[in-house]
């Protein structure tokens, strides 16, 4: 990742659906405290999608890290599963699986980094200018 980390905050939760809200609130609180309230809506959606995947698919405890790196905020979600998130096409009748499409639309880049000790980190860069979508 280009640039130096200006600040970083991290929190952990067990793999329970109720903690999706907690992770979202954590990110929103940190952004507001850093004077980046204009990134709250976009970042809240991004972390909600990434954490939901960790809870629903990985079924493992998860960790959220929020960092300011240069001209973007980096949202990272670590889980214990080695299954990777995929970029894929969805048909009009598909009822799920569009969360990463939303992440792709709201961020400048995202990806998956396998961890050497097992598990993975799914990360997304939210530009400091905010989302390309007006909320």
Automatic annotation (TrEMBL):
Q: Does the keyword Nucleotide-binding apply?
A: yes
Molecular function (GO) terms listed?
ATP binding
Sorted UniProt keywords: ATP-binding, Kinase, Nucleotide-binding, Serine/threonine-protein kinase, Transferase
Has keyword Repeat?
no
Q: Where is the Histidine kinase/HSP90-like ATPase domain?
A: 14-124
Q: Which InterPro entries match?
A: Anti-sigma-factor_SerPK, HATPase_C_sf, HATPase_dom
Highest taxon, organism lineage: Bacteria
Q: What is this protein called?
A: ATP-binding protein
Q: What is the native source organism of this protein? A: Nocardioides jiangsuensis
